[in-house]
Amino acid sequence: MARHIYDCPLRWSDMDAFGHVNNAVFVRYLEEARIDFMFRLAPGDGSPSFSGGSVVARHEIDYVRPLVHRHAPVTIESWVTKIGAASLTIAYEIKDPEQVYVRASTVVVPFDLAAGRPRRISAEEKAFLQEYVEEPEAGRGGRGGRGDRGDRVERAAA
């Protein structure tokens, strides 16, 4: 099982009046990591995988601790916890090596923009996603499971 790694820069404008990253900004961080995972890492040269569109059906976010501005990026690890016929669930941890700030999950539905309706996950997409499947840990609701240190990791520069 692999996890996708995305280094996300913090912006001064991400802070709220209380001096930490605003809760709504974390949704944008998740989006950046998800887009990098699904589109930039899609298999094959010129592959149409995931390029037809997708919609978010659900977000679930646990805010573990405040994140304050600094110059170093925050790491977002992403992996897949469920692949259905026409949806997938991506889990995330927004973290540093020593602490987790957010655990989250997103249900994504592939979408045919031209037809204006959901579509099924293609065989190519499923094969790509299978490399990132991690079973949820008991009591964690599918978010934040920790794999073996031997897990393959894909790193994406922000």
Automatic annotation (TrEMBL):
**Which GO MF term does the entry hold, naming one?**
hydrolase activity
Bias kind Basic and acidic residues: ranges: 137-158
- Transmembrane segments in this chain: where? none
Supply the Gene3D superfamilies for this chain. Answer: Hotdog Thioesterase
* Region of interest called Disordered, as start-end residue ranges on this chain: 132-158
Q: Which UniProt keywords apply?
A: Hydrolase
EC no.?
3.1.2.-
Q: Where is the signal peptide?
A: none
Q: Which residues fall in a coiled-coil region?
A: none
Q: Which domain of life is it from?
A: Bacteria
* Name of the protein: Acyl-CoA thioesterase
Per the UniProt entry, what species is this protein from, by scientific name? Streptomyces noboritoensis
